[in-house]
Amino acid sequence: MGQTSKSIFIDFDGTFADHGRVPASHLRAVRLARDAGHRVLLCTGRPRVFVSRRFRDEVFDGLVCAAGGYVEVGGQLLDDRRFPAEVAAATASLLTDHDATFFLEAPDRVFTSPASAQRLGGFFSHLLDPGEPEPTVEVREDLRDCSFSKVSIVGSPVPVDRSPSSSGRRSARCPTRSPGRPGPAASCT
Q1: For 3-51, what is each residue's pLDDT tens digit?
Q2: Domains of the chain, earliest start first
Q3: Which of 69, 91, 119, 145 lies 20 to 30 Å from 2, alpha-carbon distance?
């Protein structure tokens, strides 16, 4: 990249895509920027597995996913931050104990409990291009040993900010909304 080259970061939901659909003009704008020598990176709260293969491989120069927990440029992994094991175990137990509808996000898969999986149903199908397989959703009775970088809570009978933390540590609470889906969600990183 030359001295006048820039790195451009583009959010996916609500910016690059509108309700999961990417206008041709947005694809053209990214291609023109890259042709002009600029590096264009997708910057999203989504985990890598929720970014369509076409965008990962053909459209962008790199990815900043999971609200900054995962960074990849030119196919090279630069950062992959996960919850510390004891915090991850406490978080998974807390969500399961409170019967929340949630998923734990890792770059290559998401994890959830059997009860949560049943409530999530086809929740993930709207996230990728038509015809692309749904992301790997690993359903486990015991989630305490899962390695993940982000938590998305779709619903909970106990408000997230009122749930007692058995770990004694605090996580950031970032209210979000899933595009095309009713109701609030909360993500913690």
Answers
A1: 689 999 999 988 998 877 899 999 999 999 999 999 999 999 999 998 9
A2: 7-80 (3.40.50.1000), 85-188 (3.30.1240)
A3: 69
